[in-house]
Design brief:
The complex is a heterodimer of chains A (211) and B (109).
Chain A (H helix, E strand, L loop, with lengths): L9 H63 L2 H10 L9 E8 L2 E8 L15 H84 L1
Helix pairs in contact in A: 1-3
Chain B lengths: L5 E6 L1 H8 L4 E4 L3 H13 L2 E7 H4 L3 H8 L5 E5 L8 H14 L9
Parallel strand pairs in B: 1-2, 1-3, 3-4
Classes of the chains: A mainly alpha (211), B alpha/beta (109).
Chain lengths: 211, 109
């Protein structure tokens, strides 16, 4: 522990005691915050694992259908059919609002309107393509939910880490230091008192000897 | 920067074409470098969510890490037609490790 450098006065003792009380209160509060954040975080972890599995499954089947469609149709025809669609209204698909989880701002996404994905002629395209697009369209809400949850997890993890650091700093450094300061002042004050008492006794003796 | 209300997809053609007709913004990328430029471009255009093909995301972890600290955009890895590489799961594990301080999902790897 670093060299103690505090004034040995009663004022300073009071000040250090006040700081210690404050630090302990902060420590308790931060610890509660950390525990609650952790609780929320673990809920998200659980949720995201199931969701990701479902989403990956849905996407995989979508991609399989898509590849089949590509094999059935002429490549150019397929690309043409898909490149022309969708461009009409590349606008707001999402409604985003901010939500506060334990004072951490996390975005919430809501799909605003889903659109008809089949923006192509049916004569030149295969049924497998329809199937693929249906799979993608079906997976989209869950994909967005996944994005929301993963983002919330990232932000919470960040917050938890900072909070944990603060808790540790208070616990390991600030509080022990304050405690040591207080001990040091007590000891030094006691020592001063003893020495002045000894002086007084000695002076008393001298005065009595003279009298 | 416009209010982020769009969704972007970054990856090779076979990944994003299926999403294009759903009204998502799509960006063609075959290398991590292209993907990085595409992600930055989409973020600038106001994408709130960006889906990135997992195969490309591997080389983009620093960028993804940087975006993970800010509220928007959310970058989500999606598997390509070859199936999941487990990269997203790995990232989840990292997040948990960061939050908890220890690796509590380790035994399930």
């Amino acid at each position: 522990m670093a060299e103690v450098r505090v004034n040995v006065t009663r004022m300073e003792l009071l000040r250090q005691k006040k700081r210690l009380a404050m630090a302990q209160r902060g420590h308790r509060l931060l610890k509660q915050k950390r525990d609650e954040l952790m609780h929320r975080f673990m809920e998200l972890v659980e949720e995201s694992r199931g969701l990701r599995e479902r989403v990956e499954e849905a996407l995989a089947s979508g991609f399989r259908s898509f590849l089949l469609a590509r094999a059935e149709m002429a490549k150019e025809g397929l690309y043409e059919a898909l490149m022309t669609g969708g461009d009409s209204r590349e606008g707001s698909l999402l409604a985003v609002r901010m939500d506060s989880v334990m004072n951490v701002q996390v975005p919430r996404f809501a799909l605003q309107d889903s659109r008809e994905p089949y923006a192509y002629g049916f004569a030149t395209t295969s049924a497998e393509l329809d199937r693929a697009l249906a799979a993608f369209a079906g997976a989209l809400p869950e994909l967005i939910k996944l994005a929301e949850i993963e983002k919330a997890m990232e932000l919470l993890a960040e917050e938890i880490e900072t909070t944990r650091r603060r808790v540790n700093a208070l616990e390991q450094i600030l509080i022990p230091q304050l405690e040591q300061n207080i001990r040091f002042i007590y000891m030094a004050l006691d020592e001063m008192e003893r020495s002045s008492r000894a002086q007084l006794l000695r002076i008393k003796d001298i005065i009595r000897g003279v009298a | 920067m416009p209010e982020p209300t769009k969704i972007g997809v970054v990856g090779p053609k076979d990944i994003y074409l299926g999403f294009k007709s759903l009204g998502l913004l799509v960006m063609d990328a075959h290398t991590p470098r292209e993907a990085e430029a595409a992600i930055l471009e989409l973020a600038g255009q106001g994408a709130a969510i960006i889906f990135v093909a997992e195969g490309l995301a591997q080389g983009l972890l620093p960028l993804i890490e940087r975006f993970s600290r800010q509220p928007s955009p959310a970058i989500v890895m999606i598997p390509d037609h070859r199936g999941s590489l487990g990269l997203a799961r790995e990232r989840l594990r990292r997040l948990v490790e960061k939050a908890v301080g220890i690796d509590i999902l380790a035994e399930e790897r």
